[in-house]
Design brief:
heterodimer, A: 281 residues, Rossmann fold, four-stranded antiparallel sheet, globular, B: 332 residues, mainly alpha, MetI-like fold, 69% helix
Chain lengths: 281, 332
């Protein structure tokens, strides 16, 4: 690999953050995957993943392309099932209740477990303001003082100062980074407890990435965040926990999970060490 | 001296960039160009022919040709001259053309959009493939069969609905009738035309709906959308231009439809705005009604009627393009 990162530098980035221990932040809602498997047709893509996401923390999922990270987070809010041949086994527990249980209203699950995608995808037929509030309309939620909610979400997403004078402009008129923060603001409007982010910065320039990372740190005070990233510095900068996924020609497995500083400084598994030191992937 | 003065560089003219295409490319270019131009040539030739043949009648009759309701040829079928002078006016037929086509679109578009949404978002895969081929078959179905079916099967049932509409909505001038004749009305013809235009509107809308970007659909679902709220917020804004485009294609087909209307409608030369009353006609059915026994000036008058129909269709398509270009971009 041309870009070799010294493990010590990542570890030092990870160590500069105020360390949070499990249970020290009793905010939001915990989410837990238990013995989760996933398939596309006959292709077994995820094998036996068990992961407990502590409420009020940021967990980064790292690993080479095709190891099933994105598939994994899509099982956490039941977006997985939109792919026609997709199948899964195991359980995902939100507040201890299985979100795949019969009779669960899937739209309610997605209101509590929001998602931000890799590519910014604001609704082009709506204005900036309408985009922020679109979740209310889509989920048929009634809420008074919508103006306040709109402002609150845009402030939390770090976009308010840039758009407050043009809330009636089209969402597509913003830059890529702004569009992604608009998408974050949009997911906040339905007040999720958990926010899933699938490589939210991979299409953005470093400046925009920095703004979004600040936003993520800020949001993690009030909610649980799970982020897929290919950028290991990013994982080191923003996450409390890191999970390393790997697919060695078989279904993807979770090799190791632990506090981010541990994963980057003293990985227990040789494969994790090879990956975080840039020997492959 | 400043630097900018000492190092003044001459700014050149932009170079002309050209390539010499290979021989095979030039041959292919000619072939496809001919194909592309041919439709324009054919259309132009038809308009030119209709214009030449109809010019005399149009210049003699003037604006009355499209405002006047009478159609009378002074030449009898046996070739002798009649007592009165000929009068040619297609006003009633134009009214009929527009009314039946609008009824067709008003009934057809909601059904077609619903069926396109069903096919794209609700139908199981096996059903979808089957239904799509049925709808394609329906689009290719001969119009005389629709006409016969409309006359023999739809009309008895349609009369019942027409009477119902009349009974409860006759305060609306559109649904009033001056005489209790409910069969062979523009309403029935409009329903037949609606059935004929549904396949084309369905397939155009379906095509556009299926191009809705997946990331927007997923974004909506990730925000807790139900299928219907997702369709309303994402698919319909994106597909609105397709719906308009399909509706205009349908309108064009309904306006030009001949045989089905001729079979169903009771052709009467009066402007009939009471859509439930059994009287009316459209320009195309007028042409087929009169063409067999027309001669001389009347044939030219029919050509002129054809020209007007041609121009009307052209107008509808142009307006459709304008609407699609103006409204269609917003949801993209």
């Amino acid at each position: 690999m041309s870009e070799t990162v010294k493990p010590s530098s990542l570890a030092s980035i990870a160590a500069t953050k105020s360390a949070r221990t499990p249970g020290s932040a009793p905010l939001g809602t915990g989410l837990e995957a238990r013995n989760l498997h996933a398939w596309f047709g006959k292709n077994h893509v995820l094998s036996d993943i068990s992961l407990d996401f502590v409420a009020g923390t940021v967990t980064a999922l790292i690993g080479p392309s095709g190891c099933g990270k994105s598939t994994f987070i899509r099982t956490l809010n039941r977006m997985h099932e939109f792919i026609p041949t997709a199948a899964m086994a195991g359980q995902v527990l939100l507040d201890g209740k299985d979100i795949y249980a019969a009779g669960v209203d899937v739209t309610k699950i997605r209101l509590r477990v929001g998602m931000v995608f890799q590519k910014p995808n604001p609704f082009p037929s709506m204005t900036i303001g309408e985009n922020v509030l679109s979740g209310l309309k889509l989920a048929q939620l009634k809420r008074s003082n919508k103006e306040d909610l709109m402002e609150e979400c845009l402030v939390r997403a770090g976009l308010w100062n840039e758009v407050k004078d043009r809330l009636n402009a089209q969402g597509g008129s913003l830059s890529g980074g702004q569009q992604q923060r608009l998408c974050i603001a949009r997911s906040l409007a339905v007040k999720p407890d958990v926010l899933l982010m699938d490589e939210p910065c991979s299409a953005l320039d470093p400046g925009s990435t920095l703004r979004i990372e600040e936003t993520i740190r800020e949001l993690s005070k009030t909610m649980t965040i799970i982020i897929v990233t290919h950028n290991m510095q990013q994982a080191a900068r923003i996450s409390d926990y890191t999970a390393f996924f790997l697919a060695d020609g078989h279904a993807g497995v979770m090799v190791e999970v632990g506090p981010t500083s541990e994963i980057f400084a003293r990985p227990k598994d040789q494969r994790t060490e090879n990956y975080v030191t840039g020997r492959f992937g | 001296m400043s630097i900018s003065e000492t190092t003044k560089i001459a700014i050149p003219e932009p170079r002309e960039i050209s390539t010499v295409p290979r021989f095979s490319d030039r041959v292919f270019r000619v072939v496809v160009s001919l194909g592309g131009i041919s439709s324009l040539v054919i259309l132009g030739a038809i308009a030119f022919f209709l214009g030449i043949r109809g010019f005399d009648v149009l210049s003699n009759t003037g604006i009355k040709f499209i405002t006047q309701y009478e159609w009378y040829s002074a030449i009898n079928t046996d070739g002798t001259a009649g007592e009165q002078a000929s009068t040619f006016g297609i006003g009633a037929m134009l009214v009929g053309t527009i009314i039946t086509a609008l009824i067709a679109v008003a009934i057809g578009v909601p059904i077609a959009v619903a069926s396109a949404l069903y096919l794209n978002f609700y139908a199981p895969t096996a059903v979808r493939g089957f239904l799509v081929s049925v709808i394609d078959l329906m689009a290719a179905f001969p119009s005389i069969l629709f006409g016969l079916w409309g006359f023999n099967v739809l009309m008895p049932g349609g009369e019942y609905w027409a009477k119902l509409l009349h009974k409860y909505l006759s305060f609306v001038p559109l649904f009033d009738v001056s005489a209790p004749v409910f069969s062979r009305s523009p309403f029935i013809a409009g329903v037949v035309l609606a059935i004929m235009t549904i396949p084309i509107i369905t397939s155009v809308s379906r095509e556009v709906f299926s191009q809705t970007p997946l990331d927007r659909i997923q974004a909506a679902y990730a925000l807790g959308a139900t299928k219907w709220s997702m369709i309303r917020a994402v698919v319909l804004p994106f597909g609105s231009s397709g719906i308009v485009g399909g509706a205009m294609l349908g309108l064009g087909r309904a306006m030009g439809e001949t045989v089905a209307v001729f079979t169903v409608l009771n052709i009467v030369f009066q402007a009939n705005f009471q859509i439930l009353l059994g009287a009316g006609g459209n320009v195309a059915s007028l042409i087929i009604l009169k063409f067999g026994e027309a001669s001389g000036e009347e044939i030219n008058a029919l050509m002129a009627a054809g020209l007007i129909l041609f121009l009307l269709t052209l107008l509808v398509n142009t307006v459709a393009d304008l609407i699609v270009n103006r409204s269609g971009r917003k949801g993209r």
